[in-house]
Amino acid sequence: MSAHVVGFVGLTHLGLVSAVAAAVKGFRVVAFDSDPARVVAIEAGLLPVVEPDLDRLFREHRPRLGVTADPSALRVCSVVYVASDVPTNDDGVSELRGITELIDRVAPALNETAALVVLCQVPPGFTRGLSAPPAARRFYQVETLVFGRAVERALHPERFIVGCADPDAPLPGAYRAILDAFACPVLPMRYESAELAKIAINCCLVASVSITNSLAELSERVGADWAEIAPALRLDRRIGAHAYLTPGLGLAGGNLERDLATVLRLAAEQGVEAGVVAAFVRNSQHRRDWALRMLHAELLDNKPDAVVGVLGLAYKEDTHSTKNSPALSLIAGLTPWRVQVYDPVVPASTARHPAVVGCDSALAAAHGADALAIMTPWAEFRELKPADLAGVMRGRTVLDPFRVLDGRVVAAAGLDYATLGAPVLRARRRA
After folding, report:
1. What is the pLDDT of residues 94-105, one digit of tens each?
2. Is beta strand 5-9 parallel, antiparallel or unpaired with respect to 28-32?
3. Dihedral angle of Cα 137, 133, 1, 180, to the nearest 10 degrees
4. What span, in angstroms and rounded, lies between the C-alpha atoms of 373 and 335?
5. How far is it, in rounded angstroms, from Cα 81 to Cα 73?
6. DSSP state string for 331-352
7. Residue 232 has pLDDT above 90, yes or no
8. 3-state helix, strand, coil in the chain (%, to 5)
9. Contact present, 84 and 120 (Cβ < 8 Å)
10. HEC states along 385-417?
């Protein structure tokens, strides 16, 4: 076990996952949150976030994890990460006051040699603008959080991007030891470069998402199948084996939206032309309505008493987060119709619908439905048998944007199958 003690401030998604990862790597951890009720719940093992393996790793490494609401407990730490989630408003703009107040609260509690590392995502200029601690002990580190894969990414990061007052100066020994424990490249750079690097990474991801979504929609219209095209692109070295080439329903979650809003704001302030970024935003808004457009075309325009089953409310599998969830957007557009929903983690009360009905299983949500939309690719939905769905549904429309089910099997069961990137596959026979 390392002699260095690592502190984490803010025990929401980013902070809790990062604290557990440090404990797994052998560090003693002091995990601080200003909410005493949250601390009590975490101490009891009731974690406020859902991530694969997080509960197990928390239990296994609990002896190295101290959880506290007392900021003075951070004084033993060589490095303290400020790792609270940064909320965004309705325009995708980061609300930074809470992070600033948190830093102001914990900075005086640090010992005179401790390094403070801002891990939560902030815009360019934020870290340099802090008043404490001194710049030589103040850093910004790009977080690698991906909901549903947070533990995996925290334990096995591709690289660490570190913003510094002086990128040529060696990092403090304790901080370097923590980074080295994860055995990946470390890229020091000035504060603003590191803060913008996170945004740049996400903007390149958005570019891939947007062009994939546009070409997948074109595939639907011209009779092509995007699933056949994507492997050819992965073999092109200019695009690569790991390129994001899976069609989706716009930009869900909060971070990508936040970064586009930040670029548009900075571009307007600095006189930079950023029309391509505005186009990404429009593309995302268009894609998010795919399921609603398909339901209208296949069913709703001709059936005022239709019942729609919706499987999944989280914005992606393996997380409880519903930020910009395509499922919730769909349900909000189904106000005149009855909606039956099921998600293994998110309660039905999260949906904005006057008459939504929560169900206790996927088959229950499909029972009596004229159409079924599989909006979150949870693993348990992959076990559904199309014949069972056909047996309980009143209608025959299945929307499966993420190809959770085999469309050919769905069609063979007597159901019409619609997915992203391909024409609707019509039923070959009725069950």
Report:
1. 888 889 999 999
2. parallel
3. -30
4. 16
5. 14
6. HHTTTTSEEEEE-SSS-GGGS-
7. yes
8. 40, 15, 45
9. yes
10. CHHHHHHHCCCCEEECCCCCCCHHHHHHCCCEE
pTM of the predicted model as reported, rounded to 2 decimal places: 0.82
90's CB contacts (< 8 A; 6+ apart) are none
The angle formed by the CA atoms of residues 214, 146 and 278, to the nearest 5 degrees, is 35
Q: List Cβ neighbours of 270 (8 Å cut-off, separation of 6 or more).
A: none
Nearest-angstrom CA–CA distance, 402 and 421: 10
Sort strands 186-190 and 160-164 into parallel, antiparallel or unpaired: parallel
Q: Give phi and psi for 50, each to the nearest 5.
A: -110, 120
Amino acid (1-letter code) at residue 178: I
C-alpha to C-alpha distances, 29 to 103, 110, 273, 300, 393, nearest whole angstrom: 18, 14, 45, 54, 51
Rg (CA), the chain: 24
How many angstroms separate the CA atoms of 20 and 42, rounded? 12
Sign of CA dihedral 403, 408, 410, 411: positive
Query: Mean pLDDT for the chain?
Result: 92
Q: How does pLDDT run across 389-415, given as a tens digit for each residue? A: 999 999 999 999 999 999 999 999 999
Q: 414 near 427, Cβ under 8 Å?
A: yes
Percent of the chain's residues with pLDDT above 70: 98
Q: Per DSSP, what are the bridge partners of residue 88?
A: 94
Q: Check residue 358 and give its pLDDT.
A: 96
Alpha carbon distance 326, 314 (integer Å): 9
- In sequence order, what are the beta bridge partners of 371? 308, 397
Tell me whether residue 101 is exposed, middle or buried, using C-beta atoms within 10 angstroms of its C-beta: 0 to 12, 13 to 18, 19 or more: exposed
Residue 184: HSE in the Cβ half-sphere, 13 Å Cα cutoff: 16
In the chain, how many H helices and how many E strands? 15, 14
Task: List domains and CATH numbers for the chain.
Answer: 5-190 (3.40.50.720), 199-287 (1.10.1040.10), 290-418 (3.40.50.720)
